[in-house]
TrEMBL record:
One MF annotation (Gene Ontology) recorded for this entry: DNA binding
InterPro entries: GntR_C, TF_FadR/GntR_C, Tscrpt_reg_HTH_GntR, WH-like_DNA-bd_sf, WH_DNA-bd_sf
PROSITE patterns, per the entry: HTH_GNTR
Entry-linked CDD domains: WHTH_GntR
Protein name: DNA-binding GntR family transcriptional regulator
Protein species of origin: Martelella mediterranea
Pfam families noted in UniProt: FCD, GntR
Domain HTH gntR-type residues, every copy: 13-80
Annotated SUPFAM superfamilies: GntR ligand-binding domain-like, Winged helix' DNA-binding domain
Length: 236
């Protein structure tokens, strides 16, 4: 009896993971646009499983801020709050600076963590070369979280990780401005960060973090300005 229950729980868990990973990928890639409905019955039919693992997957997506449950209990893909982007960018830039500075103060004495940062960078390079936007988003997130972890402040690390998670779709827009062909310049910026952190140059690490954040913000702002201008110019 217990063995059967464990088997059932394991099957449900793998089903939940499959639904979660598939929907998460589709949301982050914008294949599922903000506001798209996520009906449990239809999702159950699509994945060929009961509603329980689907519901659990939606709860996990909700915890990442990717889906929203409305008062009528319907679930939709969360909207991107473009009006609040200036505040988001301010917080993101601050965390780039704090975590990169913190890492530089420890980089020369932590070879194991530097190896992890370099491994994340290798993943990022492979994703860039493959023009795989989803993999770029994941590798970029892990790269910067590894830098934050080297800094040693768990509060900063958790907050930065949350900001990066909340900004995944914004980063997807950023990569789309290059048609997913990210210029080598941005790979090189990561490389320079690694070198500077390893050398323990805190002030240079700060300058690199500011510049890195600024070009991301500028590129996204330019993209949104073009999209807004195009929408306004469309004939009624």
């Amino acid at each position: 009896m217990q063995a059967a229950q464990k088997s059932k729980a394991k099957t449900r868990g793998s089903g939940t993971q499959k639904v979660f990973e598939t929907l998460r990928s589709e949301i982050l890639s914008m294949e599922l646009a903000p506001g798209s409905p996520l009906d449990e019955v239809r999702l159950s039919e699509r994945f060929g499983m009961s509603r329980t693992p689907v519901r659990e997957a939606l709860l996990r997506l909700s915890s990442e801020g990717l889906v929203t449950t409305l008062p009528n209990r319907n679930t939709i893909v969360s909207a991107i709050n473009f009006a609040d982007l200036p505040n988001y960018f301010d917080a993101l830039t601050l965390m780039y600076r704090i975590t990169t500075r913190g890492a530089a103060s420890h980089g020369a004495s932590s070879s194991a963590q530097m190896d992890r940062i370099r491994a994340c960078q290798d993943e990022f390079i492979r994703a860039v070369e493959a023009q795989d936007a989803f993999a770029m988003i994941e590798a970029n997130r892990e790269f910067h979280v590894a830098i934050a972890e080297l800094g040693g402040n768990t509060y900063y690390t958790r907050f930065f990780a949350r900001l990066l998670d909340e900004g995944r779709r914004i980063l997807r827009l950023y990569y789309s401005t290059f048609d997913d062909r990210l210029p080598r310049q941005y790979v090189d910026e990561h490389e320079e960060m690694i070198t500077t952190i390893a050398e323990g140059d805190i002030e240079k690490a700060d300058r690199l973090a500011v510049a890195h954040a600024a070009q991301i913000v500028r590129q996204i702002q330019d993209y949104l300005a073009r999209e807004t201008a195009q929408a306004i110019s469309l004939p009624l």
